[in-house]
Amino acid sequence: MSDIIKAAAELLGQLRSNKPLIHNITNYVTVNDCANAVLAIGASPIMADDIGEAADITAISSALVINIGTLNHRTVEAMLAAGKKANELGIPVVFDPVGVGASRLRNETTRTILSEIKVSVVRGNMSEISFIAGLNANTKGVDAAEEDIASGDAAQAAVALAVAEKLGGVAAITGATDIITDGKRIAAVSNGHKMLSDVTGTGCMTTALVGSFCGAGRDAFVAAVAGIAAMGIAGEIACENAGSKGTGSFHMAIIDAISRLDEKILSERARINETYC
Q1: pLDDT tens, 164-176?
Q2: What is the pTM (predicted TM-score) of this model?
């Protein structure tokens, strides 16, 4: 067993033992899925997006997840207040720039969040992370454009490294192969199933899982790898158990698989390659 798989499995054990409180300011399309994913992995979710309490809730949480999937000006204020409180208290912040590149509001909000908040992990598809890197991105709504998907693992690694260096944190690009780096270490996660793209919210759930692992340990790189691998493994198991029934059954089976995931299953099924820069 590789060191990174061992570390991810151990972190899962810590997560289930400690049950960290994870504050999610996320989008209304997937908020229920994210809450259930956080519960299933063993953490405790709270969703507070009003400016009157966002910072207070963050102050009692172990991690903050910010997701811009369904933006409005009211929640942007709450995101900034919560993020600044997290920074003040040393609480990790996980950012999901859903659909950045598709609209001026998403672009401006992403720039503001990244300029005013220290982000521990940013997770997105190739188009979204390319935008943050300052490259030409071909965003297709909230999905990565085919041109960006086809760029290959080497191009994804280069983009992730550029963003990790720019932000001083962990950058994760999820796709057929997931690339995660902190600028010193690079992990390629090969778990997952193509059916995950047929169900809305799987990317948001992945980010929520990363936030859960961040709330259980201090190494954001290991937390990002563990959260992304956990979702990939859950997708594989869900397909094996319910994929032939259709996407509705598959959707429910994802939560079932996350809830049954333990250190043994993660260790046996994780397909992760780690290298050093």
Answers
A1: 999 999 999 999 9
A2: 0.94
